[in-house]
């Protein structure tokens, strides 16, 4: 069975600055180094510099958040590897020359940190590493990190009518980032997160060494295809439905009806004021993803994602706009911040929880110098990972003691 290339897409290197005048020579040195170290060169082009006619297309085609489409930040190179040896070469050469790495699976990171940096960097785009091999008998699959969710689902559907994998709805999301952050989907209450169903992986460290089965238990992940049919009855199929409701009347009428049917919600008139805020925007979206069910049975420490028993919903806040421009962007972001503050009394506290795949750099970032202390990083780390954050810093110290992989919200070393 083919190996899974488990390159961690959310980790980057912070390097010293390089002047624009020398960026071209640095890029050329990187290209030469990667070519010399690559033991399995591709038969087609995999390295693109800014002079390449395909450079801008490759960079922008997978920018999912259009806020960053006109960013002046550009990588020195874009690497589109076709196998893991090319990733190994890029890691070794970038580490040697002090260049940041941004790895991109689907480009859906909300803050764009899979393809943006304010330091000299290269982008490793994994879209060529998108193979999915399904083993129906074992109910497992090896999935390369550059595959998108739609490609995973399609590969499963081609092989089986009774197997599925519990992950997200958006077909263009890359599995590397999605699994790494947890992975919400419509099957979450039945089977948990995508990450809860990952059983094994091949990973790559800062020296380009690939490892798997002898790795520490804290780094094991696994991929499992689950039967969502009728148990032993393979002919029986399960159908899930999502319900959306509309009440044609005023809040004075709907509140008594809601409290009669759903008393556990404790709906009050003041809870309905969010609609006033929603009317201020052209395309506001608030998505409440229900938890509970299987999530209540999985311990908080099972994976880094801790928001299990006692949590009702994972809430996603979105706003969209068509006009490009700084003034327009600031107006919409200001509204989003007011909505976020408005929800403060109604959500988790001490700390207010956050979901890594809905990344929010406003809750805190690592220091630019790379010496972020545990207490400093806990400002954001506790929100994403709660008590798992300390365990993650311990694992970080074991497997990346030089802190080669890092970004604005990567796991820091355990500095005092």
Automatic annotation (TrEMBL):
Keyword match Glycoprotein: yes
Record's keyword annotation contains NADP: no
Residue ranges constituting the FAD-binding PCMH-type domain according to the UniProt record: 71-264
MF term (GO), any: oxidoreductase activity
Needed cofactors: FAD
Pfam family, one: BBE
Keywords in alphabetical order: FAD, Flavoprotein, Glycoprotein, Signal
Protein name: FAD-binding PCMH-type domain-containing protein
Signal peptide extent: 1-23
Family: Belongs to the oxygen-dependent FAD-linked oxidoreductase family.
């Amino acid at each position: 069975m083919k190996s899974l290339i488990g390159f961690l897409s959310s980790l980057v290197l912070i390097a010293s600055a390089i002047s624009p005048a020398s960026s071209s020579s640095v890029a050329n040195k990187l290209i030469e180094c990667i070519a010399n170290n690559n033991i399995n060169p591709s038969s087609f082009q995999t390295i693109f510099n800014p002079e390449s006619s395909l450079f801008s297309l490759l960079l922008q085609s997978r920018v999912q958040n259009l806020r960053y489409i006109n960013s002046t930040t550009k990588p020195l190179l874009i690497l589109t590897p076709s196998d893991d040896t090319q990733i190994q070469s890029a890691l070794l050469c970038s580490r040697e020359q002090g260049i940041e790495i941004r790895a991109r699976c689907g480009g859906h990171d909300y803050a764009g940190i899979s393809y943006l940096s304010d330091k000299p960097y290269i982008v490793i785009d994994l879209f060529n590493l998108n193979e999915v091999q399904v083993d129906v008998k074992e109910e497992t699959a090896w999935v390369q990190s550059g595959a998108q969710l739609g490609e995973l689902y399609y590969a499963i559907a081609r092989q089986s009518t009774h197997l599925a994998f519990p992950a997200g709805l958006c077909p263009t999301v890359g599995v590397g980032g999605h699994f790494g952050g947890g992975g919400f989907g419509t099957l979450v209450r039945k089977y948990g997160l995508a990450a809860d169903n990952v059983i094994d992986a091949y990973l790559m460290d800062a020296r380009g060494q690939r490892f798997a089965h002898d790795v520490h238990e804290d780094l094991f992940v696994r991929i499992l295809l689950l039967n969502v049919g009728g148990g032993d009855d393979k002919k029986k199929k399960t159908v899930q439905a999502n319900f959306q409701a509309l009440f044609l009347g005023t809040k004075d009428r709907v509140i008594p009806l809601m409290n009669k049917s759903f008393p556990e919600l404790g709906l009050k008139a003041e809870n309905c004021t969010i609609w006033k805020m929603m009317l201020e925007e052209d395309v506001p979206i608030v998505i409440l993803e229900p938890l509970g069910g299987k999530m209540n049975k999985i311990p908080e420490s099972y994976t880094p994602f801790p928001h299990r028993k006692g949590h009702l919903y994972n809430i996603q806040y979105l706003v969209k706009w068509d006009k490009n421009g700084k003034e327009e962007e600031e107006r919409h972001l200001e509204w989003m911040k007011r909505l976020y503050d408005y929800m403060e009394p109604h959500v988790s506290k001490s700390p207010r929880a956050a979901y890594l795949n809905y990344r929010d750099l406003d809750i805190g970032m690592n220091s630019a110098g790379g010496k972020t202390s545990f207490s400093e990083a806990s400002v954001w780390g506790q929100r994403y990972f709660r008590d798992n954050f300390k365990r993650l810093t311990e694992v970080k110290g074991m497997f990346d003691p030089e802190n080669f992989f890092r970004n604005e919200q990567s796991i820091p070393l355990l500095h005092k």
